[in-house]
Structure formats: C-alpha cells, structure tokens
Design brief:
With 201 residues, the protein is mainly alpha-helical. The chain has a domain at 17-123: Up-down Bundle (CREB-binding Protein, Chain A). 59% of the residues lie in helices and 0% in strands. It is built from eight helices and no strands. It has helices at residues 17-36, 47-59, 69-84, 95-101, 104-113, 116-123, 132-148, 159-185. Helix 3 (69-84) packs across helix 4 (95-101). Its EC number is 2.3.1.48. One of its GO terms (biological process) is regulation of DNA-templated transcription.
C-alpha cells in the first residue's frame, strides 16, 4: 500500500461491519494523534504514516478536484469522525469546520456518496474566518489554471467561472491600453477608468 494512503478498509466486503468500524476508529485516533505529535521518533503505531499523509495533503495539488486517492481517504475519515464528534476543541483536521458548515443530514448524504469535490467547495468557501486564507489561495491557484486552460469541458472546480473573470480582466486591460494610446496620440490627459465591475455613465 502507498505510504501516503489511509487504510480505512471501508470498501472491503470480507470485513464485518464491526471490524470496519474498529478500523475507522483506529485510523481516526492515529490522525488525531499525528496532528499534535511533535516527536520525530514517536514509536506509536501509525503515527509516522499519518504524519506522511498529513504532509502529503498540505502539498497535494490534486485534492481540490477530488482526484487524489490519499486525500480522498483522509477527507472521508474527517467526515466520518465529524458526524459523531461532540468535542468543542477537536484536534482532527477540519472537524470544527465540517460541523459548522454542514448539518447532520447534509453530512450524512455527503458520506453516502463520498462527494469530495462538494466537500472541498464547502470548506474553501470564504465565510468561516479560519478558511479565508485557504479560499484566497484556492482562488489564486484556480485563476492561474484558468488563464492557461484551453479545455472548454474542463472539470476542475471553479475553472469556468475563473475563465470568465480572466476574460473580463483582459478586456478591461485592453480598453485601458487603447485609451492610453488615444490619449498619447492626441496629447490629452487620460481619464481614469472606473473600477472593474462598476457601471459606466
């Protein structure tokens, strides 16, 4: 098994429901421990592996569109845990965010279909203060992708919306350049263009 995968064993029919539940709980305990452990030589079972999983998640570029298996497994664990967690200060990744953003029914549906893309769209929304930086970073990454993407059917979350934003910015920049050229040609001062999105008189 990959060193960055989370063996939650949720899809193994040979395991009984109780065995699967115990495996999930074991993985959750390992993730919660690894989030707080600062001992590089920690010999607790699963600690080093979960540290690698968490480190992988931080740098993974495929997690936003749900195409990374390791990140998908970690998110599934976090959702499974958050559905049952009642702690106010829980060390599990995203636990407070998930509980705040999703009602119990929505979370149950999310776990049922394992819709990682929808989950990421929710946690990267700008409303919670703790996800604001992540949302800004996501916008920057998506805009950079959209500026170069030529696939009209691109499935990356937010690509089509960002393409429209990029086109609008380019159009405004072109209008500004043309206005400057006219001003230089006729030796007249340039009138500042209104901010992007404002109405013109």
């Amino acid at each position: 098994m990959d060193s960055t995968s989370v063996d939650v064993q949720k899809n193994q029919p040979s395991l009984s429901p109780e065995a699967r539940r115990q495996a999930m709980q074991r993985c959750i305990r390992e993730v919660a421990h690894a989030c707080q452990c600062r001992d590089a030589a920690c010999d607790l079972q699963g600690c080093r592996k979960m540290k690698r999983v968490l480190q992988h998640y931080k740098g993974c570029k495929k997690k936003v569109n749900g195409s990374c298996r390791a990140c998908e497994q970690l998110i599934f664990l976090c959702c499974y845990h958050a559905k049952r967690c009642r702690q106010q200060k829980c060390p599990m990744p995203f636990c407070l965010i998930i509980k705040r953003k999703l009602g119990q029914l929505e979370l149950q549906q999310l776990l049922g279909r394992q819709d990682v893309t929808s989950f990421l769209q929710l946690i990267f929304s700008p409303s919670p203060q703790e996800t604001r930086h992540q949302y800004i970073q996501w916008c920057a990454n998506t805009m950079g992708h959209a500026n170069q993407c030529r696939d009209v059917a691109c499935s990356l979350q937010g690509c089509h919306k960002m393409k429209r934003v990029v086109q609008r910015i380019k159009k405004r920049a072109q209008e500004y350049r043309e206005a400057r050229q006219v001003a230089i040609l006729y030796d007249c001062p340039t009138k500042p263009l209104p901010p992007l999105g404002s109405s013109r008189s």
